[in-house]
UniProtKB/TrEMBL annotation:
The keyword Oxidoreductase does not apply. It holds the Pfam family Amidohydro_1. It comes from Gallibacter intestinalis. Gene3D superfamilies: Metal-dependent hydrolases (3.20.20.140), Urease, subunit C, domain 1 (2.30.40.10). InterPro entries: Amidohydro-rel, Metal-dep_hydrolase_composite, Metal_Hydrolase, MTA/SAH_deaminase. Keywords: Hydrolase. This is Amidohydrolase. The lineage of its organism: Bacteria, Bacillati, Bacillota, Clostridia, Eubacteriales. Residues 51-398 form the Amidohydrolase-related domain. SUPFAM superfamilies: Composite domain of metallo-dependent hydrolases, Metallo-dependent hydrolases.
Amino acid sequence: MLFKEITILDENFNIKENMYVGVRGDRIVYVSNQMPEEDFGEVRNGKGRLLMPGFVNGHAHAPMGLMRGYGENMALQDWLFKKIFPFEDKLTSEGVYYATLLSMAECMRFGIVSTSEMYYFMDEMAAAVTESGMKSNLSRSISHFDDSDFMSSYRAKEMIEAYEKYNGAAEGRIIIDMSLHSEYTSTPESARQLAEYTKSIGARMQVHVSETKKEHEECKEKYNMTPVKYLNSLGIFDTPSTAAHCVWIEEDDRDILKEKGVSICVNPISNLKLASGICDIPKLLDKGINITIGTDSAASNNCLDFMEEIKMFALLPKLVTGDPTVITPKQALMAATVNGAMAQGRTDCGCIKEGNKADLIMLNTDVPWMHPKHDLLGNIVYAARGSDVVMTMVDGRVLYENGVYKTLDIEKVIYETEKATKEILAEI
């Protein structure tokens, strides 16, 4: 496929006009301002379009699409323990499968090409991701409340089985990470065992960190350490890790996260909706920490429109610092794309570059809110909408285009998700 005379966001995240981008197989093989001599087959006219790397959703819980709108206007701890956990106790494999497909459909509609998922029902999630054509770093979320041996638990067995069955599956589109749900849902020994196992197999780690002030302060009272220091003392960050939220971390925590090479996934809208707080992004940038963007779940966010998330990521630090110059459009777009790919361990993804995977999205810029184009980077971050995405491609395969889901029967997915939700509610 050849994109002809199209505006692109290049590998340095600068705008270039009248470019030619050739895709062969799953790779970008040609990027130039000159028409290629070789034949790439189908030609796409780039008039009024922008080609850019697809978004990477750095922290998500896809099956929680079943809980969209369930448990509104509640504090995080009440929301979890009074609504979400009781609902999740009734989940079925079929419900998780269709909810994951629903979330994958929503992701591709809004230009997300890859997600980092923390949940369970790994067989069903892997099947849904494979069917959808999306990419995902899947992890079996671990909670362990008692003093029993974690590695003998059914959770550990499911985690190990998922890694052995699915790591590298779907032609490499699926990567299996390990995942500690959080400090407050595990014991020190279970966290230590998980850290040791993760390091022994060379896997990556996902973990919730300091999402709320209550969580942060209670950890300090319990262990005389912040959650970051506590998790680091147990070896959680001894492998490449993504720490989600990090709203209440302290200066020493940032030093540890930088030293350990931990990526931080900021979830602006979820944190606002649950009144968890606002992550201090400028201080993370000052430390040189890799920052990514996540939606969290449709239960704590209600929508996976990544354009909304990017805009909020860029705006909130300006309010908090009183400095309108912090967070440039380029920084926000890098957090939404290449930084997320780096956090997932996908080194050949995240930007338009010859040799990289063809994970591309095309935006319609021929709409009123994208004109005039004084600063197209600024327009993408502050003016563009998720509905402006007209094509989503993963590994050179078009998954969504102009209202058509190429890999999914969207009507069936919606029907089955609604059916599963009603069945669960009837049992609660």
